[in-house]
Design a protein that fits this description.
Elements: H1 6-10, H2 15-66, H3 72-94, H4 97-122, H5 133-150, H6 156-161, H7 172-182, H8 185-200, H9 207-210
Helix pairs in contact: 2-3, 2-4, 2-5, 4-5
């Protein structure tokens, strides 16, 4: 039985390594979209509550300045508007919607960087990748762990009902890997050179380019 060189085996991208790469790509994409939507949702709540506070405060001030004496009905209306203003401001400050939105966006950007890094490798034919699979996949996993330790968690209920879409875990690298396996030898280098040049010029069509 021929002996396999350890250094050679570590530098080869087999089916297992490629499947792991695709899995990590799906994972990065899912988390990126989840935290993007969480950031957008909290930012929208912050702006909505801020608008309610400003409008209700302006209306209350107008009523107060425009009337010397108020009957009971106007007093009730004024008290209700003032209460709405105070409650919306309290909710806005208590739940820190703006700070949470910023944290979620920062986390989404971190996952986007992982996704882009994986795509820069996945866009190249496995036989022409310069990154060693074991080292590269370890770096990606370490980065996942770092983000997981520092990120603000999203509730499972909100993730299922608001922040998740059916196509979030789809990866174009999966179809690309299947195509790689069907290429003839003379086509591999040509196909990889085209992908490598596109990656260098940052013109590769990725999932992030096609999503809003």
């Amino acid at each position: 039985m021929p002996r396999v060189d350890d250094n050679e085996s570590e530098s080869e991208w087999g089916d297992y390594e490629n499947e792991t790469l695709i899995h990590n790509h799906k994972l990065a994409k899912v988390y990126k979209k989840r935290y993007q939507r969480a950031g957008d949702f909290h930012n929208s709540l912050y702006r909505l509550l801020g608008l309610i506070t400003v409008v209700s405060t302006a209306v209350a001030s107008t009523i107060t300045w425009g009337t010397d004496e108020m009957d009971d009905e106007k007093q009730i209306i004024l008290s209700s508007i003032t209460t709405v203003s105070a409650v919306s401001a309290a909710i806005q400050n208590f739940y820190n919607f703006q700070e949470n939105a910023n944290d979620y966006v920062t986390t989404a950007k971190a996952y986007a960087k992982i996704q882009n890094k994986i795509e820069s490798v996945g866009n190249i034919h496995p036989e022409y990748r310069t990154e060693k699979p074991r080292d590269f996949l370890k770096k990606i996993q370490d980065r996942f762990d770092q983000i997981s330790d520092s990120r603000m968690e999203v509730s499972n209920c909100m993730s299922r009902n608001c922040y998740q879409q059916p196509d979030d875990d789809e990866s174009y690298l999966q179809e690309k890997h299947k195509k790689y396996k069907l290429l003839k030898e003379e086509d591999k280098l040509h196909y990889s050179r085209n992908d490598l040049n596109s990656s260098i010029n940052i013109q590769v069509v990725t999932d992030s380019d096609n999503e809003t």
